[in-house]
Design brief:
Blueprint lengths: L5 E7 L2 E6 L5 E4 L4 H10 L10 H11 L3 E6 L5 H9 L2 E6 L3 H8 L4 E3 L3 H7 L5 E7 L8 H8 L3 E12 L4 H10 L13 E2 L2 H10 L2 E8 L4 H5 L8 H21 L1 H13 L5 E8 L5
Parallel strand pairs: 4-5, 4-7, 5-6, 7-8
Antiparallel strand pairs: 1-2, 2-3, 3-9, 8-11, 10-11
Helix pairs in contact: 10-11
């Protein structure tokens, strides 16, 4: 077992959040018991956060892969796979631990296997997919780099792994903390165990045997906070801000989806955006 150590960013309950010099990214320490985490996600966790940018993810994927088999690991209610189905030429499969979410996805006509990550690796050994989507998973699990390494064997030759995670401790978030004199509001234990920035996400991706094909972020919702529209703890304000962001994206997407992609690629380079998205392929010489 690795001995994790690093600068302590904050202490909450009986856990600390450290910038780990061993793992290379920010994570909770000491770790939670894996069995407790599995029980939490199987029975209690009830969040649903589909993104308006997921249509752009399909557009980006189809520039590199026009069709084939797509697997969504941790598909929740199947929102991303719905968009692949509508795009055509995709055979869609999902895995989801939460029974209620899996049933919602099945009602949409999606094949969903209600299994843990460990069970998936055992049951589907030898199967491959052209595209694997891994959205909002790495921040929840004890060993994100280990999962990335395991997923290489489930990719067909030339296949794509698309990783999406929240962008935490970003410049805009830290600017807001400084202005308000508050602690990081995005730290949520035990829901989020790991916290990534562009450089740390890229580091574990390349260390896990991948080449980075494309990088994008998503709309920086913290921009509204810095402009005085405080949506924290105010769902009505949050919905209004989100609606304005998605309206802007819809107009730009209708005009030129490539322009939207270019904009978010540039924001990624600056470390700005609510989420980070990497498009990966196994590096040469990797199985």
């Amino acid at each position: 077992m690795m001995r994790c150590a690093g600068d302590v960013l904050l202490t909450r309950d009986d856990r600390t959040l450290i910038r780990c010099g061993t793992c290379g990214f920010i994570h909770v320490h000491p770790p939670y018991d894996p069995a407790q985490l599995e029980a939490f996600y199987r029975n209690e966790f009830g969040e649903s956060t589909p993104s308006a940018s997921w249509a752009d993810k399909v557009w980006n994927v189809q520039r590199m892969k026009p069709g084939g088999r797509v697997l969504d690991v941790g598909c929740w209610e199947g929102a991303q796979l719905e968009l692949f189905l509508k795009a055509g030429d995709w055979e869609c499969t999902g895995t989801e631990l939460n029974a209620r979410a899996a049933e919602v996805a099945r009602r949409k006509g999606i094949t969903v296997h209600q299994v843990s990550l460990e069970e998936f690796v055992r049951q589907f050994h030898g199967q491959v997919w052209d595209v694997i989507n891994l959205a909002y998973v790495l921040e929840h699990i004890p060993d994100p780099a280990g999962l990335l390494r395991q997923l290489r064997s489930f990719l067909a030759p030339g296949g794509l792994l698309v990783v999406e995670v929240p962008n935490e401790f970003s410049p805009m978030q830290r600017a807001y903390l400084k202005a308000r004199g508050i602690e990081p509001y995005w730290v949520a234990l035990p829901v989020h165990l790991n916290y990534f920035q562009p450089e740390t996400l890229e580091a574990i991706a390349t260390a896990s045997g991948y080449d980075i094909v494309h990088r994008e972020s998503t709309f920086p919702m913290e921009l509204f906070l810095l402009m005085g529209e405080d949506y924290l703890g105010r769902p009505d304000v949050g919905r209004a801000c989100f609606g304005r962001a998605t309206q802007m994206e819809a107009h730009l997407r209708a005009y030129d989806p490539a322009a939207l992609s270019r904009m978010y690629s540039k924001l990624y380079e600056a470390g700005i955006g609510r989420a980070l998205i990497l498009y990966l392929r196994p590096a040469a010489g990797q199985p």
